[in-house]
Amino acid sequence: MSEQARKETSEEFDERQKELAAAEGEAYQRSLRHMIEVVAHTGEMVTAGEYIVGFAQEEAEGLYHLTDDGEFEWTEPSGEENCHLEVAVADAADGRFVPEASVTATLAAHDDGEVGPVDMDLLWHPGLYHYGENIHLPGDGTYDIEITVDPPTFRRHDETNGDRYGESVTVRFEDVDVKTGQS
């Protein structure tokens, strides 16, 4: 872990809070690894600056949307959507999810052009929060996936540790085997 990513105790953040944050991060990272290694077709994660950035790729899937009248509506993927890309952004110091970042992904097929950048919305999932979207790709194949994380705009507590997540990062996952379809 880089010095930049490290969290120190302070007037705002004591040793017990540090332990609890680390435990929360460890649990989130276990859920993320499970999604990448067991649930998804493929996925990876890397540390980039103050973030851990990971992705999982699955077939396009249905999602609930909250309507204007406050009701939930289940929406199946559109006829052309054939890929669900999930992106996790976590704190490199303790592994916890980082909300409200602006996340985009671009997928470049080795033999058929580029899709994106696509905005990755925040998604609730029973296993873990993540960013994601259903998208249309030309088909199965080998892709390079570029993910950009722009800093969240939320305010930060703590004079010692609060000056974090201020830089954009871009990570590139190369030669990713993507399987398209709808679940």
Automatic annotation (TrEMBL):
Keywords associated with the record: Signal
Residue ranges with Basic and acidic residues bias: 1-21
Region feature Disordered, mapped onto this chain: 1-24
UniProt cross-references to Gene3D superfamilies, sorted A to Z: Periplasmic metal-binding protein Tp34-type
Name the UniProt record assigns to this protein: Iron transporter
Pfam families documented for this protein: Iron_transport
Lineage per the UniProt record: Archaea, Methanobacteriati, Methanobacteriota, Stenosarchaea group, Halobacteria
Keyword Signal: yes
